[in-house]
Amino acid sequence: MDPIPARVTAAAVWTGSGVDVRTVPIPELGPGEVLVRVRLATVCGSDLHTVTGRRSAACPSVLGHEAVGDVVAVGEGADIPVGQRIIWSVTVVCGVCSRCRSGLSAKCLSVRKVGHEAFDGDWPLSGSYAAHLVLPRGTTIAVVPETLSDAVAAPAACATATVMATLEAAGELTGRHVLINGAGMLGLTAVAACAAAGADVQVVDRNVDRMALVPDFGGRASDGGPVDVAIDYTGSSAAVSAALGRLDIGGTLVLAGSVTPGPALAVDPETVVRQWLTITGVHNYEPRHLHQAVDFLDRTREQYPWEALVVSPVPLKQIASALRSPPSGKLRTAICP
């Protein structure tokens, strides 16, 4: 095992009432584990929901699951060189249960999640709002090419990879009319990906500032007409219902934003049958989607202004200032531990 450069590190621990930046020990690495020095972490909207009380989470915990970092030490059997710049998956999976074997590792029977685990458990350094974190065996790791900046690469671990999964569920996109509900980081990424695939992309979002970003990523405001594919990142039952009502014959509705309880959605089975509709859901993503995310961002780095969506990072000691909604024209705040 490579030597660990220090025995302690700094971590921002979510306490339920705020974040407490602490000096904490770095554990000995077990087989297959990887120690990463975090270069930059972006703040996903789900973490904002946690700190504002809209989403339950392990507490205390180190939040953060969108980040890029350098490998500084590895446990026995870890197949990644020290010094490599990487991103990593949100999910940590066993690889052998029935779900993993069937291709649904995102729903592994023993799944654990980066930035979602208890600080007082057996994986305290699980989140990226820290100078270092530990990646257990079962974490998917993707190498970041030199052509991608940290600010562009970090959101790939959640937003971009999730979009890759939703687009796979949506099916063929070339020449199709696509509706995207929500122009946040996921929605805008989906706009760009669908446009790059040759789709006509319409967007619905009540936020005027976010809608102003849409043309730069290949989309346009909705015209209210029928669509072949609708993808929802809002989780709003009203928005989902409106999207379902716009599907043309053979249309597909992909739900990705409905991750908290909400009002039930009325679905007419006869309409689904007669119009040959498909309704499907996506939660998290598979390993291939993380690699696809990196490839997509690298391939489109000069086509779309990805870096302009991320606020300049603040140091870890100022993390409280980053755990709030980004300013107009931005979609992610960032932390540089």
From TrEMBL:
Domain of life: Bacteria
Domain Enoyl reductase (ER): 16-335
Record keywords: Metal-binding, NAD, Oxidoreductase, Zinc
UniProt keyword Oxidoreductase present: yes
Principal EC category: oxidoreductase
Enzyme Commission number(s) from the entry: 1.1.1.1
SUPFAM superfamilies: GroES-like, NAD(P)-binding Rossmann-fold domains
Family: Belongs to the zinc-containing alcohol dehydrogenase family.
Annotated PANTHER family: ALCOHOL DEHYDROGENASE 1-RELATED
Protein name (database record): alcohol dehydrogenase
Organism in which the protein naturally occurs: Mycolicibacterium nivoides
Lineage, broadest ranks: Bacteria, Bacillati, Actinomycetota, Actinomycetes, Mycobacteriales
